[in-house]
Amino acid sequence: MVVKEILEHPLSKYLRTDMMPHIWCPGCGNGIVLNCFAHALDELKTDLDKLVVISGIGCIGRTAGYTNTDSFHTTHGRSIAFATGVKLANPELDIVIVSGDGDLFAIGGNHFIHAARRNIGIKVLCVNNFNYGMTGGQLGPTTPLDAITTTSPYGNSEHPFNLVHLAAASGATYVARWTTLHVRRLTQSIKKMMQKEGFCFIEVISPCPEVFGRRNKLRTGLDMMEMFKKASVVESFSDPAKAEITSDRIVVGEFIDIEKLSYEKLFHEKIAQINEKTMEQVS
Amino acid sequence: MSGKRSLLSGAHFLNGDVACAEGAIAAGCRFFAGYPITPATEIAEHLSERMPEFGGIYIQMEDEIASMAAVIGASYSGLKSMTATSGPGFSLMQENIGLAVMTEAPCVIVDIMRGGPSTGQPTLPGQQDVMQAKWGSHGDYEIIALSPSSVQEMFTLTFEAFNLAETYRVPTMLLGDEIIAHMWEKVLIPSPENLKVVNRKKPKVAPAEYLPFKPDDDLVPSMACFGEGYRFHATGLTHNEHGYPQTQSSETQYKLVRRLCEKIRKNADRIVKVEEIMVEDADVVVVAYGIVARSALSAVRKARAEGIKAGLLRPITIWPFPETHVADIAKHAKAIVVPEMNCGQLVREVERCAKTTPVAFLSKFGEEPHTPLEILEEIRRNN
Amino acid sequence: MPERIKHKPLDLEKVQVPRAEIHLIKDQCKGCGYCINFCPKKVLEESDEINARGVHPPKVVDESKCIVCSFCTAVCPDFAIFIVEKKDKEESKT
Prior knowledge:
A: alpha/beta, Rossmann fold, eight-stranded mixed sheet, two-stranded antiparallel ribbon, 9 helices, about 35% helix, B: alpha/beta
């Protein structure tokens, strides 16, 4: 059932309003991320014809279907590899990947580190809800130790990734972490990321009340957001290796903000040089 | 030899992989993403040098899964794209081949077949991926696969593969084998004016009316690309004509999957190509492809010299399988001989189409394809 | 003016607290409660009516208390609420 009044919302031009309301659960942080993203695009006055939103598989993966731009919903974990092809083929396009912790770091982990290493100019918005939500709440690479999920009924025995540390170590030029409570700072980070050269990464800690929160004493989205409020500390430019996430302390902020020549710039310059040389030979 | 930034028009002595790479460039391919794998590595190496000369892009991805994903990405950005691999890499690519089929992304995948399964015999030929090309990914779908049996065909069929991919918006495969890929032979490359390049259909309507997956009469939708203002959505999920996911509708699933199959099946008569030598009055017909077809031709000629009415049917298009050609031959031939470098793959298709006509299968593995004498003996046995 | 502020700000006449028009798209609401809970001025509370999603959307307690911080607009996951700043006709003349 499409709600017609959605057209009155100031950000509706960034949404595929014929697909609204979205499929996400009440209290799901995905909607907040979409909201902040649309807000950032609005403040930047982004040319929507030049923006491509690519997402992987998962609840957050549906984002590509909700933005009013060229968009593509890839196979599980492969959105970054797909985006590499898109960006190299047409470097003028702005490419934003919106995907989840499992999609980007479990099955897609290899593609993530290589894209960061190459410094290809794609922007990655990773929504971290600590589990595989779409399939019902299984453990993932960011599930906290001892958390209960459907595949760790006795408590998770795997140590989780520190995503900002991983992104920083792989060579990203911009690395930040926020929660869905930090709506303004997240919007500003997204704006910064969109205008930066090279591989950028923002991790957004997000509530998943229905399948994760419910099993881990955070019954509603509000409980999780209150936890974010209590536990987050902004420590920008601190050591990403020490940016931990526990129920008492969630370190957020911008961790890396450096300048580095992007892969597509480097490569296209080289192609232009080679092209010139061969044109000289022909003429 | 003309300047660097031009097609190598003229006569050349090339190896199969290089001929394939040149065929791609001649067809307008400007994006290659791949991963080194024997015996297809030379295609990547040659293109890493030649692509930038044409302003094209070469990228070596971290694995074959990423290569196939990047190929689809570049295709959706408007470039003709390809990858080249062998058995193990081909297996890795299957999921994304399914994505290419579902999102109807034109692309070319070159599989230089080697000994399998698994790591197998990296430096020796095989024909063991034939069924995988058709059934490798999950779900019901159709693809096009071509089989070259000379270095010249490595050029012309790669060129043709791009035209087919663009016409039918389908992943098109080139099933070469290690011998054809590493062989050196004379290749005649036409000048650019004599090469007919086909490009994908572009939308004729304004962005507001564009439906990315609404087919025309030929069952193929027109294709907008990223950045052209069409703001379309494409997904691997079952989708409607808008491109939006509609996973709960059996009607949508039925319409979509049927169309993806019919797109190729209904156009089979325009897609299928075979070479028929001396089959009109043949009693024994050899059906062979790839390197084996070379031995088969020699065997057929020797048989004719002995007075046996032998003929050769060489499928150039492996998928869709040349059903009508085989069925026609089966009507008047006494027997069909199928030599393959595997345990029996294309022979099953031949048996299916030949119905009651006896089909003899000749299997051989290893570094040498069947010799003409081996095939000749089989022809004699079935005469 | 609170007692602790001894001096009157020079631009007190010119600066006005923004006034708001609160727009609720009731049938988009999924009842997460974020807007109600995080509003700094407690302008919203859960209503008794049931919307098309089967939940209680928020209702405005006192629109005049809203200071147009727009946190509810930014944090709503469902695009169900947005604030528009009411521009006074007299203000636009000065």
